[in-house]
Amino acid sequence: SIMPATLSAISNGARHGILFKGGVHLENLGNLQAIALDKTGTLTKGKPEVTDLVLRKDVNEADFLQYVASIENYSNHPLASAIVRYTKNKYSTELLKPENMEDISGYGVQAYLDGVQWKVGKAEFVGREEVEQFQNGIALDFAKQGKTIVFAKDNKGIAGIITLKDVVRSETITAIEALKQEGIYTIMLTGDGEKTANAIASESHVDAYIADCLPETKVDEVKRLKEQFGTVAMVGDGINDAPALATASVGIAMGEGTDVALETADVVLMKNDLPRIAEAVKLSKKMNRIIK
Ligand code: ADP
Ligand code: MG
User: Fold this and answer.
1) What is the pLDDT of residues 10-58, one digit of tens each?
2) Does 196 contact ligand 1 (Cβ within 6 A)?
3) Where is the protein situated, by its record's location annotation (predicted)?
4) Topology given in CATH for the domain delimited by 49-165
């Protein structure tokens, strides 16, 4: 049965925008040793904007964007939406209908346009070697600025790159510092590459980060953290975070996240309000003292 102290803490939480799907989750937060956080949409706003375009010499910008946007139009990744939005704003061209479109989760998209195969996505997806040859590895400079680079390859190699930047939420640093103050180890997990991950991790003040995570890698990391630390929370917003949310001692979803994340989580931050986590930890510690 649920203790009166727990009940009052849960209803207090709900009034302040943090929803617990059971008293045990609130109690667990008081014992939290480590917290893993997804990058895109959790530490950052999750609404990336196109910042730079670098094209191969023979490539025309309007054509390039029309092709890439036509393919990305069939993906629902936040990067894809940003590229389509940018293209439509800059050129009022009609989008084309690609053939054999494939969306490969965590890597990118591929399709045929006018009989030519296009691959649009991360370096590992289009080919590391070609990426390094493209403009003397210019992509590295962008990655160091915390930008995500989308590579677009046609039948002649990399046709161009589109860089996008997603800004860290204004309350992220406060939230991370408050968790560290409670003695909790903070670690960022992301599908993005090493250099971009490094830049966003230092902007966010997290203790550590792991780049190039596939959804399964996030699960493995949460398992490893549980072995090392004990009680571990995972915070995320995407479909790709759901398995890790289920694996954590406490799964925490961003309120504006996808339905799957909201259903899987034990705790929901109704207004995406990250600082509420540390407040709930403090509340839980106080409550656990009253119960004992
Ligand atoms: P995150 O964990 O950062 O939310 P994802 O696991 O969704 O990232 O994707 C990992 C990486 O794969 C992205 O950073 C991007 O480089 C690439 N990617 C995935 N889907 C697409 C797409 N539709 N268009 C371009 N790039 C993509
Ligand atoms: Mg995300």
Assistant:
1) 888 888 899 999 999 999 999 999 999 999 999 999 899 999 999 999 9
2) no
3) Cell membrane; Membrane
4) Calcium-transporting ATPase, cytoplasmic domain N (3.40.1110)
